[in-house]
Each structure stands twice: as C-alpha cells, then as structure tokens.
Amino acid sequence: MIGTRSGNIFEIEISDDEKLIKPKQGQDIKLKKWIQCVDHETPRNLSVDKTSTRIFTITAMGMFSIWDLKTFELIFTREFHKRAKMIYSFKLSNKVMLVFENEIIVLNSDPVENKFEEMSSYNLKLNTISDCKINTNEKILGVATVSAAAPEVSLYDTEDGFTHLKTLYGFKSSIKYIDFSTDNYYLQ
Question: Is the pLDDT confidence value at 134 over 70?
C-alpha cells in the first residue's frame, strides 16, 4: 500500500487498479462512511436480511456482525470462536443461520427485538459440514456432511425447528456443493 496526498484527499493505492480515497478532516466530500474491520480476520461470507436494511457478516474464525445498510454502523457483534463455513439470512422469516464446521446455529434476527438470541430448536451438531442449502420456499434444509464412513446428505424440515426428514447415503466421492431446483422438487 502506498499513500499519497492529492489536494484535499489522501489516496492509498491498494493495487495497480484500485485506490482507497479518504477525505481530509473537515472537508465536505460526499463520501458515506468507511467500513472498518473490527477483528482483523478474513471475512468469510455475508448476507442481507429480508427487508434489505441490515448486512450480516461472519469471519473465518466466527466473528458474527450485523451492520446497518444505510449508515454502515455496527449494530451487533458476537464472537463464536469456531471456524465458519457460511451465513444465510432467511428471506421469509426473521432468522439468520450460521454454519460452522460441525454445527449450525440459528439466531432470531427480528429487527424490533434486536436481541439476536439463539433459537435452540434450530441448532444442529453434525459431522464435518461440506455444504448446506435451504430450498427456495425455505421449508427444507439440505446438509452435506463427511463422516469417517462416507459422505451423506441429510434433509431437515424447517417449519418449527430443524426436524430430521431423511438421510441419503451411497455417494462414492466427497460432496462439495448441493443445491435445490427453483421449483423445490430436486436436490443436486
């Protein structure tokens, strides 16, 4: 990174093609806000809530943060101290799902309450998770795991907590990705 002064701004060269520009204090430049890294870890994944007003982020080491989309102010943060795989914000209800290496945790993301408490009926402890997806109507969760024996895919009902529906076995190689068809009839 190379910093240079140019008139009323301070430029930081990130790469040959990208520059980060910060206004001098007191200057009236139309620049919203800077997002600052709060935990110096690699961001793993992000998701936007169902009303498009908040951003949910998770870092590789499990730092969960919620940001206001309009002001980029930090609303909530919690350290889980676990290796994170992904984050998913439900679009039809106020829940956010955090996926770690061996566990899935769902938090209540109701913007009125702003407590972000764990919903224990949705928490799962599993073998090593390689991928998980929720179908488009958010009624089925598919989780691909790797155990000592062989890879498997488990399906869970999401209606009132995660209820185990079925486990699919017999895969000859590890499963990296799974996905549901847009009509919710097929899992690939």
Answer: yes
Q: Which residues are CB-neighbours of 135 under 8 A, at least 6 positions away?
A: 142, 180, 184
Among 108, 101, 111, residue whose Cα is nearest residue 161: 108
Of the candidates 113, 114, 110, 185, the one whose C-alpha atom is nearest the C-alpha of residue 155 is 185
- Whether the pLDDT of residue 135 is over 50: the answer is yes
31: tokens are 């620049």
Residues of the chain above pLDDT 70, percent? 78
Domains of the chain: 1-28 (no CATH), 32-125 (2.40.10.480), 126-188 (no CATH)
Q: Which residues are CB-neighbours of 130 under 8 A, at least 6 positions away?
A: 144, 145, 146, 151, 174, 175, 176
* Edge-to-edge order in the sheet of strand 43-48: 43-48, 54-59, 63-68, 74-79
Query: pTM (2 decimals)?
Result: 0.76
34: its two tokens: 């800077």
User: Which tens digit of pLDDT belongs to each residue from 150-169?
Assistant: 899 999 999 989 999 999 98
- Residue type for 80, please? F
